[in-house]
Design goal:
The chain is an alpha/beta fold. It is about 40% helix and about 15% strand. The chain has four helices and six strands. Helix 1 runs parallel beside helix 2. The chain is globular, with a radius of gyration of 18 Å. The two termini are about 30 Å apart.
Amino acid sequence: MDVADFNSVHAAKKYLDSILGETGLDFLINNAGIVGFLMRMSVPSMLISDRFASSTQAVQDTAFTLDPEEFINVIRTNVVGPALVTQICLPLLEKGSRKTVLNISSTAGSLQSVAHTVGTPASYSISKAALNMLTLKQKVDRPDFIAITLCPGWVKTDMGGKNARLEPEESIRSILKIVTSATTDDSGKYLRYNGEVIPW
């Protein structure tokens, strides 16, 4: 299933129903995500560092240089995709015993931590802040569910790179411990992989 392809998401419903229709779904983990990209574009010199000399610059995705189409693509994958996946899984979650939705976010989506995430692509940070709000809306709309948004840490994956601090196994082990022990009292929380609360 490609979460950025809404037809693909809708098509997956029939397949999921055939597997889980009788038992339901206890845990839904929305893990798909993209960062954005470095692009070459023409930008007014006042918006970029002096190290860029020509009119066509190598520009990172920032609040003043983000590409609208790429921004929409990141939002589509990181926010709308998880929202739609959760929608099509709703009947299965209602049948499940745990009714837990875990949205994989990032500290880059924390409004209060923005000063510590300088250099993170703007489209990515904005999308993760929106995913956090989606999680809160899910908690409010379904108080009988457990909806959590969680940062997996800086992990050695294709996105995190080889210099990341965490091995995938360490992050996954900690995340599973959190999600399997969570209760409705934890719904709406914004957590790190180790259980620490992240400021909104």
